[in-house]
């Protein structure tokens, strides 16, 4: 745990030191759980968004994008269930005065059971080698099966309590498991109570006539209320999808873990409209497709896993999370949900307008079912950033800090460095910058010794350093250094564009999904 905490502290400090993320309003001592994306962070975030958009919209003929407003008619949120059901179960520790989500405390306890089971499985794997049958071991080893069955039993009981509103049993479960305050170890808990997460605001010129509104807690409803507009104007045929990226707002009482859980965040969502009865086929398709997208970034298949929901949301008949191994353990990165026809039917009921699709092949109208994919852009940023930040010991015993961002996402693709600030080298370097900036985000750096500049660019995550030296003046070649291997090669200036493009092209990275 201490090692995880140290790693996470390094992530937070590196993000600030190298211009990725700043605390919001820092000169006024900041604002809890609100952050600003700095000059490099905004580029990384933009590149992640574009990588998602290209794969989701541009590469699918039957998916289009929209950008719906943050403000929506307040009845939208009554219809969606957010006014009545968008709550978190909160519990306070009487001694530490800290507030926690009761379901997260229980889920973290269950994660420890899962990790204990995994340790036993890993030991057995090492002992038996290729002859190891994991499935048989899990079912026959009493310790492992005990851990996993206890985990399942706890989560089912929690889900039942939350679904039925039996919050007293949720508290009883916490007490029976002897779950303690993670920071102080105290087990002195208050009752569990529900807290609505929506931010309220007002629309209007005067207090007397102002309409009560909410800042949207999710982007999905902007898609649902525009379903018919998009379908008719785009002449879309089932199955088809509508994608959107944008800000959402939740009054998280227990906001923590840096940008993992914030009050203002960005989502990348796609709602896929299908014929009733075919939703599970498409649910499985998107479940597999989205995992392939994540794995195309090359951050290690072992860092992802599915987590099927025991407790389903009121609108879903199937749901899974793609979880990622963050510095603080496996947590949700993306959700894939089969939302049935709940949303469109609810908006039909509250608006009095038909939101149906006329199927020319079947010659009838019906309300489509929906399969949703929803990934948090900020969480995706944290996943990429935290997994890329590494301390490396070199052959000579020295160390370097390197941010091994997937080159397709790196804010700056190449830094152009004149070896010295004289003899015409800066002029040639700046000409290379002028040439490459039409295709890539590049930087010019002439301060400090070239070795120190290499280290600075490593820490910034820049995939390539291009050094202009005196030989460049003679034969128009430069040294290009690769961030990850530190390998250097001599290439002609005219080859730079093609060489960089080969490494950073979204086409080449997304082709890994095939």
UniProtKB/TrEMBL annotation:
It is found in: Cytoplasm. Substrate binds at residues 101, 218, 265-269, 372-376. Keywords: Aminoacyl-tRNA synthetase, ATP-binding, Coiled coil, Cytoplasm, Ligase, Nucleotide-binding, Protein biosynthesis. Its EC number is 6.1.1.14. It catalyses: tRNA(Gly) + glycine + ATP = glycyl-tRNA(Gly) + AMP + diphosphate. Residues 107-134 form a coiled coil. GO terms for cellular component: cytoplasm; extracellular exosome; microvesicle. One of its GO terms (molecular function) is ATP binding. The keyword Lipid biosynthesis does not apply. Belongs to the class-II aminoacyl-tRNA synthetase family. Catalyzes the attachment of glycine to tRNA(Gly). Homodimer. This is Glycine--tRNA ligase. It comes from Flavobacterium sediminis.
């Amino acid at each position: 745990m201490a090692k995880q905490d140290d790693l996470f502290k390094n992530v937070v400090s590196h993000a600030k030191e190298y211009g990725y993320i700043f605390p919001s309003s820092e000169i006024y001592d900041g604002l809890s759980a609100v952050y600003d994306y700095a000059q490099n962070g905004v580029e990384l975030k933009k590149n992640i968004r574009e990588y998602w958009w290209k794969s989701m919209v541009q590469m699918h003929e039957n998916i289009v994008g929209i950008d719906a407003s943050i403000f929506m008619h307040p009845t939208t949120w009554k219809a969606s269930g957010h006014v009545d059901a968008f709550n978190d179960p909160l519990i306070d520790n009487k001694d530490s005065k800290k507030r926690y989500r009761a379901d997260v405390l229980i889920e973290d306890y269950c994660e420890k059971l899962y990790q204990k089971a995994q340790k036993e499985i890993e030991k057995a794997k090492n002992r038996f080698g290729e002859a190891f049958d994991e499935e048989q071991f899990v079912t026959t080893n009493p310790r492992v099966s005990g851990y996993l069955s206890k985990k399942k039993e706890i989560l089912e009981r929690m889900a039942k309590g939350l679904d039925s509103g039996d919050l007293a049993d949720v508290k009883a479960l916490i007490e029976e498991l002897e779950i303690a305050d993670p920071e102080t170890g105290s087990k002195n808990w208050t009752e569990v109570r529900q807290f609505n997460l929506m931010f309220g605001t007002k629309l209007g010129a005067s207090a007397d006539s102002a309409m009560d509104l909410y800042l949207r807690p999710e982007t999905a409803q902007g898609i649902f209320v525009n379903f018919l507009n998009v379908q008719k104007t785009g002449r879309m045929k089932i199955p088809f999808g509508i994608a959107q990226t944008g800000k959402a707002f939740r009054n998280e009482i227990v906001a923590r873990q840096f940008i993992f859980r914030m009050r203002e965040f960005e989502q990348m969502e796609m709602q896929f409209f299908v014929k009733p009865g075919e939703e599970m086929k498409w649910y499985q398709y998107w479940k597999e497709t989205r995992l392939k997208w994540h794995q195309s970034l090359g951050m290690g298949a072992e860092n992802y896993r599915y987590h099927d929901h025991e407790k389903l949301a009121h609108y879903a008949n199937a749901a899974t999370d793609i979880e990622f191994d963050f510095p603080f353990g496996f947590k949700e990165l993306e959700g894939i949900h089969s939302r049935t026809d709940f949303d469109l039917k609810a908006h039909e009921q509250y608006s009095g307008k038909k939101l149906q699709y006329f199927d020319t092949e079947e010659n009838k109208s019906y309300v489509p079912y929906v399969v949703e994919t929803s990934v948090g852009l900020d969480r995706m940023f944290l996943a990429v950033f935290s997994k890329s930040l590494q301390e490396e010991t070199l052959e000579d015993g020295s160390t370097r800090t390197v941010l091994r961002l997937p080159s397709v996402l790196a804010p700056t693709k190449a830094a152009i460095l004149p070896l010295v600030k004289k003899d015409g080298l800066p002029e040639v370097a700046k000409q290379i910058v002028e040439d490459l900036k039409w295709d890539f985000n590049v930087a010019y750096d002439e301060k400090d010794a070239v070795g120190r500049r290499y280290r600075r660019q490593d820490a910034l995550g820049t995939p390539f350093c291009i050094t202009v030296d005196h030989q460049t003046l003679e034969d128009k070649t430069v040294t290009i250094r690769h961030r990850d291997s530190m390998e250097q090669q001599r290439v002609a200036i005219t080859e730079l564009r093609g060489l960089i493009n080969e490494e950073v092209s979204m086409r080449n990275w997304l082709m890994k999904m095939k």
